[in-house]
Amino acid sequence: MTGGQLHDSKAAKPLIDMLPYANHIIADKGNDSEGIREQVRERNSIPNIPWKSNSKVGNDDIDWCLYK
Protein backbone atom coordinates (compact mmCIF):
# COMPACT_ATOMS: atom_id res chain seq x y z
CA MET A 1 0.00 0.00 0.00
CA THR A 2 2.91 2.34 0.60
CA GLY A 3 6.21 2.98 -1.14
CA GLY A 4 8.13 1.12 1.55
CA GLN A 5 9.11 4.12 3.65
CA LEU A 6 5.89 3.97 5.69
CA HIS A 7 4.46 1.01 7.56
CA ASP A 8 1.30 -0.33 5.88
CA SER A 9 -0.69 -0.09 9.10
CA LYS A 10 -0.38 3.72 8.91
CA ALA A 11 -2.10 3.69 5.50
CA ALA A 12 -4.76 1.19 6.64
CA LYS A 13 -6.66 3.59 8.90
CA PRO A 14 -7.91 5.96 6.16
CA LEU A 15 -8.66 2.98 3.90
CA ILE A 16 -10.81 1.35 6.59
CA ASP A 17 -12.80 4.58 6.86
CA MET A 18 -13.64 4.32 3.15
CA LEU A 19 -14.90 0.73 3.31
CA PRO A 20 -18.62 -0.01 3.18
CA TYR A 21 -20.11 -1.80 6.20
CA ALA A 22 -18.97 -5.40 6.59
CA ASN A 23 -19.56 -7.99 9.31
CA HIS A 24 -15.83 -8.79 9.37
CA ILE A 25 -12.74 -6.93 8.28
CA ILE A 26 -9.85 -9.21 7.44
CA ALA A 27 -6.22 -8.11 7.37
CA ASP A 28 -2.82 -9.75 7.62
CA LYS A 29 -0.28 -9.59 10.45
CA GLY A 30 1.20 -6.39 9.02
CA ASN A 31 -1.90 -4.63 10.31
CA ASP A 32 -1.66 -6.12 13.79
CA SER A 33 -2.36 -3.16 16.04
CA GLU A 34 -4.90 -2.48 18.72
CA GLY A 35 -5.62 0.88 17.07
CA ILE A 36 -6.77 -0.81 13.87
CA ARG A 37 -8.79 -3.40 15.80
CA GLU A 38 -10.51 -0.63 17.77
CA GLN A 39 -11.28 1.30 14.58
CA VAL A 40 -12.90 -1.84 13.12
CA ARG A 41 -14.94 -2.39 16.30
CA GLU A 42 -16.13 1.24 16.20
CA ARG A 43 -17.60 0.43 12.78
CA ASN A 44 -19.55 -2.42 14.41
CA SER A 45 -17.45 -4.94 12.53
CA ILE A 46 -15.37 -7.83 13.81
CA PRO A 47 -11.60 -7.61 13.22
CA ASN A 48 -10.12 -10.84 11.89
CA ILE A 49 -6.42 -9.99 12.12
CA PRO A 50 -3.85 -12.49 13.37
CA TRP A 51 -1.52 -11.31 16.09
CA LYS A 52 2.20 -11.29 15.34
CA SER A 53 4.24 -14.17 16.71
CA ASN A 54 5.89 -11.94 19.34
CA SER A 55 2.53 -10.78 20.71
CA LYS A 56 1.49 -11.70 24.24
CA VAL A 57 -2.08 -12.22 23.00
CA GLY A 58 -2.84 -15.51 21.26
CA ASN A 59 -4.75 -16.15 18.06
CA ASP A 60 -7.56 -18.14 19.66
CA ASP A 61 -10.20 -15.67 18.47
CA ILE A 62 -9.19 -15.77 14.78
CA ASP A 63 -11.55 -17.48 12.33
CA TRP A 64 -8.86 -19.17 10.25
CA CYS A 65 -11.31 -20.47 7.63
CA LEU A 66 -12.59 -16.95 7.03
CA TYR A 67 -9.04 -15.57 7.06
CA LYS A 68 -7.80 -18.03 4.43
Could you explain how this protein is built, in words?
- The chain is of the alpha+beta class and 68 residues long.
- 35% of the residues lie in helices and 9% in strands.
- The protein has helices at residues 8-18, 34-42, 64-67, and strands spanning 24-26, 46-48.
- Helix 2 links the parallel strand 1 and strand 2.
- The protein is globular.
Question: What's the short version?
Answer:
Helix content is 35%, strand content 9%. The chain is of the alpha+beta class and 68 residues long. A two-stranded parallel ribbon has the order 1-2.
Derived from helix and strand composition plus strand pairing, the structural class reads alpha+beta
Shape: globular
- The number of helices is 3
Helix content: 25-40%
> Major sheet, described briefly?
2 strands, parallel
Tag the structure with descriptive keywords.
2 strands; alpha+beta; 68 residues; 3 helices
Topology at a glance:
Elements: H1 8-18, E1 24-26, H2 34-42, E2 46-48, H3 64-67
Parallel strand pairs: 1-2
